[in-house]
Amino acid sequence: MRAIITILVIAALASVPLWLRDPYLLNALITTGIFVIGAMSLNLLLGFTGQLSLGHIAFFGIGAYVSALTSLGFDIGLPGGLRLVHTPWPPIIGFVLAILIAGLCGYFVGLLSFRVRGAYFVIVTISFAEVVRLVALNWVELTQGPLALTNIPSIALPLPGFGELTLRTKMQNYYLVLVVALTAYFLIARLVHSHFGRSMRGLMENETLAVSVGIDVTRTLTVAAVISAAIAGAAGSLYAHYIRIIDPEVFAFINTVTMVIMVISGGKGSLAGPVVGGLIFGLLPVALRPVMAPEAQWIAYGGVLIAILFVLPRGIVPSLAQRLTRRRSATTALAPVALTETGAKEPA
Amino acid sequence: MTARSIAMTIDQVAVRFGGLVAISDMSFTVGDGEIVSLIGPNGAGKTTAFNVMTGFLTPSAGHVTYQGTTLTGLKPHEIADLGLIRTFQRTSVFPNDTVYDNLLIGLHRQGRVRLLDAILGLPGARASERRLRQRAGELLEWVGLERRAHDAAGSLSYGEQRLVGVALALAAEPSMLLLDEPVSGMNASETHRFVELIRSIRDRGITILLVEHDMPMVMTVSDRIVVLNYGRIIAEGTPDVIRNHPAVIEAYLGHGAGRA
Is the reported ipTM for this assembly greater than 0.90? Predict the structure, then answer.
């Protein structure tokens, strides 16, 4: 049943560019997809370890800049009159480096901030994002500062024997984003259903007890932070090569807030939550464009968020799932539940 | 007490919180496979002693040794890795997970597989998952909670939650188990069943250190009893010795001792 739904959803998503010819809508779907990946990575921390990272966009932006600079090349002066010159590499290498370097930054932020929890962790992550934004703004020699990095090449997939395929059209980019999003989704699904995912849940629910059965807090939270940051970095790289221009505004706080709203409205701690929330808040601007000025739209987002949380307080996916199981268990209350039923539950 | 090998040594341990002395100069040993109880009035320092033994608290002086390893400076999860597992008075379960999932979390030490193997779903990781699920089922049966397997642990009665707490601790495969007031909140028949459970745990070769207020239960189950008052050990011996010890009667048990 679950597998059938999964296949149907994937098929539906894959069919979109075949019938949707409007480039404006397709563009909205691609950028929404990129933000959905970011929201999924945020959900790994917020929903499954309970740590709120309000600087999550930093990893996204680092991924974008690393990928852009790798494929554009740079020439910067170092102390002592030395120069560091990097000639352009293929964007696909930029994509890989974006994942690695964003993950590395996640490691350091994780190490630093999991010594402090709760409000302190939130502040550390906000500060981190702000510091990275200021670096991007002021290290003009490397990043062009507010003048932005322009002419970022599109991603080209190396095809052995055929040369390479440069992804220029919207349709190609849609499929690229879809493939990365699905990979991220199933990676996170495997992770949270594994042994490691149970450690994360244990820590979130009752840290003292989790530690007493041998769960290593620092390791568990750091690994979660690294994977979360790496996925955000991948999303950032996709963004850079699709939009093909990035400036320090990518680190704006509002972008983190957007991701948090996607996760909270869809349902933190559920796999599909950030996808549902991301699609709603990613496509709402498109739906509202004919009827509202962009400034007024922010008011509408607030209204929609409040409405969702008023009706479905735990977020769309968990609240609906709860209602569904309640209805089902009301009809089959007397049927005995075999142990193997959860035992055989497949991840994803 | 015949010549057992010593599992745990508490050597001149003292704990001070600012000017408050919670434990002063506490020394005793627990033998392999023994059931030892730590008793004393409220505030005598029993839970503090547990926190020192399991690394949640660093002693101001002295040290604890378990199977030859000094525990000072080890983190709680590292001490758990030595096979020294505790239960808690209050926070004994993961409330939002089912009882079954609680045990799977408790089986952490048995289920370590490489993260990449788990993500890729390699055969080794899958086999490990199957083993864990089977083991969780066995543990549920052992503590008698099969029927509550799919209920959220937080929705169980207080007594049942204590059982989940013990099952969780057992899931971590302890060589020594520290039980912090396990029968508080249980009725007489639940307590009786729990005594049987403690014995069956010991019969599997697990050493047990018990903190408990229920005197009849302590007298029935213990091989040896250590009595604390105001952070100091005032008596130590078999239940019979403790029952008739003048210092204990005066400090703690009062006239009720004879009833047990």
Answer: no
